């Protein structure tokens, strides 16, 4: 028989009460330990363990609660420390000693139970060496296995003599059960002892350390390679550690942020870390020895060194040469401003500039705009700030020699003139071979992409402009122009140019000092007569694939820009300098310094220890440092997918650099930290003792350091308030040997009773904290936490000491918008999700939960007066707040680091939900999550009226509350390539991102690029509603439209309607807009109302047309959209701006990656029941996936709630990466998703639209209940509520002139109508005239509460075993067996239950009422509109 030990739970109370009765009775334990409450002990104790019988799990054998100070001395253990130091020679100190708060053991098995519990404590907490029990001197309890300390011989005047004279101390030592290992050098004789241990762990060892041969390792020891063995009590080898001083530092310095560890080398005395940091090597990193909660302000930089100029590029090429594609790629790589003459001309006219008005007059007269005027427009545009700072790409100009000369005369000279050469025959073949399928709109090519189907081939047509004759005419004109302008750039033109000079205007004036303008220009003008003109021309072979062409294009540009920097070429305006700057007075070459520096570290190359001694890995480390006494750091690398071992608890993880492809994680240990536990002390901050050391910690931190200094100064105002009087603000210093290595500032401003109620109302704090066991006075908020990375492993001890000294059982940490979360907080504290809040409607008083109290209340009268004014942030729905917490109990349950490289591609709702679920797994700390998304999290997306809103995507306030931007790495890029074999992806910025687990959640977007010819050719004026970036680009282009320009919106997605809305709000007249297509709103009446609204705005709506190709002019500016109607006839819609918002599909780039890497794509990315693709390391979820056809009749994933699928996706991934997971469990069937999907948007005519739908709706069996209407004499709220035959609300649609609270209404969909105040019956009786008003009644606030689903599930569980409910269920089951349909069954149910449950048995009705009232009572802070009966009045 054996004893099982586990952490205690509140549910143990009943069994423990029985154990107490059996083991002496409550009075015995009250006498021994004072009054006790098991729930209180479990929740507020440092660690609580319960012992149970191995064969009878419900039989409890023992219980133990340990704390960090003796009973009766909650504010500190200084007295007992002084007593032990005075009376005994026992090396006890606060970091290695715990005290018994309560102990009980079954008398029949007391010795075994107690021994097992204590051994478990030492295993779980390796730093603990002693457990002490203080008893009354008259207590006869022997406390088996504890040694009674002898009576101390103390001087009569000793303070300890009077305080402890009535006590007996019993001491238990770790050495008695888990002895410290003896360590020595390994020898060949140890081999036989070690082989069984290595065999047992061979798989893990090979994975973590690679292949090895034990015997050779032991025999091959030399000066630089050592092997140490640990010996157990039997003097037999039980573990081995191999160490080496041969470390490849260059690789580690390249891949990891090692600045805080002096780059693991011995820097010269005159080249300190701080000097190296100044030159850019550590600008982004934490100050050495400091981890702080505030974002650092950039240190004022010394005078900058001028760097490369912004690129200035001109590109030319024949029609169909691929110039548009190369322009797109140049913009993406160099971030230059892409300019075409057509765009600039229209913009100048629209802006009504002087030259724009001149051009407008010329155009309206029917004449061509002269070269001088076009050049002036270009000169003005190039002088604007974006071109000056980013550089420019001039596309389509100059076309003639006159234009080229005009540019030179105005000082516009590029760095490079790119000329794409494609043979005429290739151009003709490209153009004349294009064919259009009029039925599908698909583009084919007779040579390069012919149709396989003969029927399709027979119906193909050719565009009128794609004939050989017209193509050769355009080519002839092009060649004439190119021959004329190339001498201006190839060095043979004999012209005087200003090499590399970019002027801001016609007079060449720039940002130069007054009185020195002429001098500056003179210095920069370079006269290059005759054949000495610089050759700026680079001819590129364009008759290849676009990727091959761009390789040459980019190389040509890079070479030219490099030569510009080398020659020292400068710009007269807009000096462009690099972000990282080098002080002119510090000439330190970081690479050279590190290359010459001596290594200061050694590495652990292999470690193995048997399971019985697993917690004693720390015993090896002192001896490892002695093996290399000249080295200060020990390092260890482990695979990112490996689980953390006890050995790593002594090390600090090192952050990898962005883009690092190093496959392992790096851990570092400084030798000072190894012995710090003996000297580490946390004490109240005293300026005289600790103040002088503070500047080293907070210097160079700008505002963040100033705030800490301010907080410390503020706390000094209460220096005279003793700790036991609970000061409002207090500062603590952590010291090692008198040196300050950390700071903590805490306050009670936001932990009064009302404040805690506010936290409970706004955050899921009650999921973790039993508030009835934590008084308000025992809670506080940490406002600053700084600790040296060297001692980061002692962060929990520092927190523990702060809680002990300040007498706190709960600590919080708040994060305001824009603030970062220090790594020490994110790794040690537990994040709390913000709760889903009911949305207040117009005219309703603000929801009470937003009114945050700022008073301090101590549960005691006369304690509310504040002495110190601490700044308190007051969140709003739009400005949320992040929250972390830790309790004393959680200090013994450290979070497990999960180092797996998890890469999420796509910031869709599913992707954000996935990340949120991982990061809020309370016992895990994910250190390596990366999000790849253009625009990042789009936290500042603004009011995007051109896009529909997914109501499940976090609001800006909730996003702040989640704090995702502080906990993950974000790459503002898109997916370009996927290499499954290398387990890496290539991004659009050419960076490589390795992964252990890849998550594809890009969602779906407009698919016109794949369906409409020319849509993806880069024509100016073409936009796609594929996300925030597309919306922003389209809105920005509106300012360049003239009143005569037409805008075409094409598509049948909801975004086609929102695009019209956005254009109207941006100032485009309705008469300028043509909508080709439109979207079904889900109700015929709503569709008619929308058409009427658009007609009133003047918007032309054309239906029955299918887009075929984009039409553009010779300057690659859009001219129109060619479509076919239902009869097959061609129809051209003229426009100068084209917005695609068509049916959604996987983006071409993602499809190319998936298809090219062998992932199965069948209309959507095919996944398994756990959302895996065919590659076990690649998962996908959201709207872009589908289950295999093996599973019949599965709904489209685009109908699922993406938040729900993202959560499930995270749960599936956790089965693979969570070290505590039991492994992947494949379900028998695909998961069932039931949450509604919610979308809302603004529509033309000042209308607002919302639609909330369940994944599966059978339109043939739903009942539509319509209220309200639009127009004069109505409430201007048109609502449709749909129910299925069972009375479940399956959909809610709204169209009206005012916004509604969609998130509130989303709680309605999916509920049975009985939960909704019998809404169906009320409607049928004519009592519902407006669904919006019906669901705004006071009764409905309860169903909007985020915990209402818990009440729902609770009632279902209770009713399943209730007699009255059983009778109703039995009747309905019998009717179902008789073949009654759902509608009949629902009618029978309504009759059996009755209105308000009047037909139920009294006991059933009472049970339902009692549970409902208890739910309201528990949530009365939020649901304050309900008047609740007294507890004893409910009958």
UniProtKB/TrEMBL annotation:
The keyword Nucleotide-binding applies. Residues 1231-1343 form the CFAP61 dimerisation domain. GO terms for molecular function: AMP kinase activity; ATP binding; oxidoreductase activity. Transmembrane segments: none annotated. Residues 5-266 form the Cilia- and flagella-associated protein 61 N-terminal domain. Residues 901-1192 form the FAD/NAD(P)-binding domain. The keyword Kinase applies. Keywords: Kinase, Nucleotide-binding, Transferase. InterPro entries: Adenyl_kin_sub, Adenylat/UMP-CMP_kin, Adenylat_kinase_CS, CFAP61, CFAP61_dimer, CFAP61_N, FAD/NAD-bd_sf, FAD/NAD-binding_dom. Coiled coil: none annotated. It holds the Pfam family Pyr_redox_2. HAMAP family: Adenylate_kinase_Adk. NCBIfam families: adk (TIGR01351). This is Adenylate kinase. It comes from Triparma verrucosa. The lineage of its organism: Eukaryota, Sar, Stramenopiles, Ochrophyta, Bolidophyceae.
């Amino acid at each position: 028989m054996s004893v099982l030990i586990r952490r205690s739970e509140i549910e143990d109370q009943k069994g423990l009460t029985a154990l107490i009765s059996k083991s002496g009775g409550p009075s015995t334990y009250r006498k021994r330990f004072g009054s006790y409450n098991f729930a209180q002990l479990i929740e507020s104790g440092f660690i609580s363990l319960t012992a149970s019988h191995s064969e009878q799990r419900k039989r409890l054998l023992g219980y133990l609660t340990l704390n960090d100070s003796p009973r009766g001395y909650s504010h500190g253990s200084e007295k007992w420390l002084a007593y032990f130091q005075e009376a005994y020679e026992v090396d006890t100190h606060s970091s290695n000693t715990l005290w018994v708060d309560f102990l009980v053991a079954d008398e029949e098995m007391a010795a075994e139970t107690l021994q097992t519990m204590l051994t478990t404590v030492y295993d779980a907490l390796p730093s603990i060496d002693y457990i002490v029990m203080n008893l009354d001197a008259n207590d006869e309890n022997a406390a088996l296995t504890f040694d009674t300390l002898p009576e101390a011989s103390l001087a009569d005047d000793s303070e300890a003599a009077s305080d402890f004279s009535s006590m007996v101390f019993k001491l238990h030592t770790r050495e008695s059960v888990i002895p410290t290992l003896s360590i020595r050098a390994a020898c060949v004789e140890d081999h036989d002892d070690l082989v069984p241990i290595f065999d047992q762990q061979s798989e893990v060892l090979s994975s973590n350390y690679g292949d090895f041969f034990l015997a050779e390792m032991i025999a091959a020891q030399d000066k630089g390679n050592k092997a140490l063995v640990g010996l157990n009590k039997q003097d037999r080898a039980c573990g081995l550690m191999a160490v080496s001083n041969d470390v490849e530092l260059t690789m580690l310095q390249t891949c990891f942020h090692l600045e805080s560890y002096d780059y693991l080398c011995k820097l010269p005395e005159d080249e300190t870390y701080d000097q190296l940091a100044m030159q850019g090597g550590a600008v982004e990193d934490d100050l050495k020895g400091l981890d702080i909660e505030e974002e650092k302000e950039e240190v004022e930089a010394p005078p900058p060194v001028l760097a490369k100029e912004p690129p200035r590029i001109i590109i030319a090429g024949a029609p169909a040469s691929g110039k548009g594609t190369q322009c797109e790629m140049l913009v993406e790589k160099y971030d230059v401003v892409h300019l075409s003459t057509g765009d600039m001309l229209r913009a100048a006219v629209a802006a009504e500039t002087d030259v724009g008005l001149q051009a407008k007059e010329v155009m309206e007269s029917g004449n061509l705009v002269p070269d001088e005027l076009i050049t002036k427009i270009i000169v003005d545009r190039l002088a604007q700030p974006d071109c000056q700072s980013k550089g420019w790409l001039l596309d389509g100009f100059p076309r003639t020699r006159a234009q080229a000369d005009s540019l030179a005369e105005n000082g516009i000279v590029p760095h490079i003139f790119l000329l794409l050469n494609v043979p005429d025959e290739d151009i003709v073949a490209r153009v004349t071979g294009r064919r259009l399928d009029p039925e599908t709109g698909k583009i084919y090519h007779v040579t390069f992409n012919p149709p396989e189907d003969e029927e399709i081939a027979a119906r193909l047509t050719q565009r009128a402009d794609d004939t050989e004759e017209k193509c050769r005419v355009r080519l002839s004109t092009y060649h004439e122009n190119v021959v004329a302008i190339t001498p201006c750039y190839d060095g043979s033109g004999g012209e005087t140019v200003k090499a590399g000079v970019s002027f801001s205007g016609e007079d060449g004036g720039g940002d130069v000092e007054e009185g020195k303008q002429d001098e500056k220009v003179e210095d920069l003008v370079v006269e290059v007569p005759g054949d000495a003109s610089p050759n700026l021309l680079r001819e590129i072979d364009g008759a290849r694939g676009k990727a091959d062409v761009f390789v040459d294009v980019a190389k040509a540009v890079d070479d030219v820009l490099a030569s510009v920097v080398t020659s020292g070429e400068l710009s007269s305006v807009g000096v462009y300098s690099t972000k990282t700057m080098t002080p002119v007075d510090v000439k330190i070459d970081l690479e050279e310094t590190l290359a010459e520096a001596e290594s200061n570290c050694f590495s652990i190359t292999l470690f193995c220890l048997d399971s019985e001694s697993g917690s004693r890995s720390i015993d090896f480390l002192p001896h490892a440092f002695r093996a290399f006494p000249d080295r200060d750091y020990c390092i260890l690398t482990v695979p990112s997918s490996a689980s953390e071992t006890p050995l790593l608890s002594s090390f600090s993880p090192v952050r990898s650099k962005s883009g690092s492809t190093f496959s392992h994680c790096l851990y570092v240990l400084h030798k000072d930290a190894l012995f710090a536990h003996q000297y580490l002390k946390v004490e109240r901050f005293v300026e005289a003792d600790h103040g002088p050391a503070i500047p080293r910690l907070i210097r160079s931190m700008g505002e963040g350091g100033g705030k800490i200094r301010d907080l410390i100064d503020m706390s000094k105002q209460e220096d005279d308030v003793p700790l036991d009087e609970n000061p409002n603000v207090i500062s603590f210093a952590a010291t090692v040997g008198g040196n300050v290595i950390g700071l903590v500032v805490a306050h009670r401003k936001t932990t009064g009773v009302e404040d805690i109620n506010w936290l409970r109302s706004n955050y899921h704090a009650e999921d973790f904290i039993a508030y009835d066991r934590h008084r308000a006075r025992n809670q506080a908020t940490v406002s600053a936490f700084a600790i040296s990375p060297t001692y980061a492993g002692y962060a929990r001890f520092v927190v523990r000491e702060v809680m002990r000294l300040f007498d706190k059982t709960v600590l919080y940490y708040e994060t305001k918008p824009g603030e970062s979360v220090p790594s020490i907080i994110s790794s040690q504290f537990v994040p709390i999700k913000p709760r889903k809040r009911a949305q207040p409607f117009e005219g309703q008083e603000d929801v009470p939960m937003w009114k945050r109290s700022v008073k301090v209340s101590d549960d005691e009268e006369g304690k509310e007066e504040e002495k110190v004014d601490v700044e308190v942030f007051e969140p709003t729905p739009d400005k949320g707040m992040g929250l972390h917490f830790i309790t004393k109990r959680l200090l013994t349950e450290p979070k497990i680091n999960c180092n797996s490289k998890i890469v999420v591609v796509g910031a869709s709702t599913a992707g954000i939900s996935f990340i949120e679920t991982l990061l809020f797994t309370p016992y895990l700390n994910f250190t390596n999550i990366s999000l790849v998304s253009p625009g990042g999290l789009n936290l500042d997306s603004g009011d995007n009226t051109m896009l529909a809103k997914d109501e499940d995507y976090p609001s800006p306030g909730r996003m702040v509350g989640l704090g995702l931007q502080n906990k993950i790495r974000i790459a503002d890029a898109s997916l370009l390539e996927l290499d499954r074999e290398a387990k890496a992806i290539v991004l659009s910025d050419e960076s490589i991102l390795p992964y252990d687990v890849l998550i594809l959640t890009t969602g779906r977007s407009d698919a016109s690029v794949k369906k409409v010819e020319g849509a993806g050719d880069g024509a100016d004026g073409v936009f796609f509603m594929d996300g925030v970036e597309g919306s922003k680009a389209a809105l920005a282009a509106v300012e360049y439209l003239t009143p005569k320009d037409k805008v075409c919106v094409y598509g049948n997605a909801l975004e086609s309607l929102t695009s019209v809305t956005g254009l109207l709000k941006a100032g485009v007249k309705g008469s300028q807009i043509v909508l080709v297509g439109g979207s079904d709103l889900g109700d015929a009446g709503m569709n008619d109302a929308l058409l009427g609204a658009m007609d009133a705005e003047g918007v032309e709506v054309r239906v029955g047309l299918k887009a075929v190709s984009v039409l553009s002019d010779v300057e690659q500016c859009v001219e129109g959209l060619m479509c076919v109607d239902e009869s097959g006839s061609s129809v051209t819609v003229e426009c100068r701006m084209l917005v695609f918002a068509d049916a959604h599909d996987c983006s071409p780039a993602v499809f190319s990656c998936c298809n090219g890497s062998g992932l199965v794509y069948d209309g959507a990315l095919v996944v398994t029941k756990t959302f895996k693709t065919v590659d076990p390391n690649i998962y996908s979820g959201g709207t872009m996936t589908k289950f295999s056809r093996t599973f019949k009749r599965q709904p489209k994933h685009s109908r699922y709630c993406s938040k729900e699928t993202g959560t499930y996706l995270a749960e599936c991934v956790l089965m693979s990466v969570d070290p505590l997971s039991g492994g992947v469990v494949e379900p028998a069937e695909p998961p069932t998703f039931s949450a509604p999907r919610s979308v809302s948007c603004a529509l033309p005519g000042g209308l607002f639209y919302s639609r909330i739908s369940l994944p599966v709706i059978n339109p043939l069996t739903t009942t539509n209940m319509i209220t309200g209407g639009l127009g004069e004499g109505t409430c201007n709220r048109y609502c449709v509520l749909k129910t299925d035959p069972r009375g479940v609300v399956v959909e809610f649609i709204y169209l009206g002139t005012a916004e509604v609270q969609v998130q509130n209404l989303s709680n309605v969909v999916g509920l049975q109508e009985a939960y909704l105040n019998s809404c169906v019956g009320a409607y049928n009786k004519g009592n519902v005239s407006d669904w919006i008003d019906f669901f705004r009644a006071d009764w409905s606030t309860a169903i909007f509460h985020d915990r209402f689903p818990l009440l729902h599930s609770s009632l279902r569980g209770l009713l399943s075993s209730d007699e009255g409910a059983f009778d109703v269920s039995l009747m309905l089951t019998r009717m179902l067996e008789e073949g009654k349909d759902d509608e009949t069954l629902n009618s029978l149910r309504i009759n059996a239950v009755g209105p308000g449950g009047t037909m139920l048995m009294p006991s059933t009705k009472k049970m339902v009422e009692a549970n409902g009232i208890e739910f309201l009572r528990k949530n009365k802070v939020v649901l304050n509109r309900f008047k609740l009966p007294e507890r004893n009045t409910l009958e």
